[in-house]
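From the pipeline queue, job 12 of 40. The input is one protein chain; the requested action is below.

Action: predict structure.
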Amino acid sequence: MITTNSIVIENLHPQVINNLVDLIANINSKIDLLLNKDISNPVKFITKKDVAIIFGVSTRTVANWTELGLIQSYYMGGLIVYKEHEINAAPIPVFKNKN
């Protein structure tokens, strides 16, 4: 009989016990990863309107850039959003004057 944290395991094949120990170790390591995840720099999402203000363009232009793949958008809760750090790192488009 093995007693661990008030759990009694009786009459189990040693391989079953080893599998359970491995499974528990795996779960513990995943919990550790989750608990130690760096949350000091959470991802901030912004709207299409925010992106338009950053670049000084219309929201339709932002939508066009998204459709062309020039900037990456994400769906969150049924909304189209953008990662602020990706937008801030995006090159600012330069347009030639038609004159």
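Job complete. The two ends are 88 Å apart (CA to CA).
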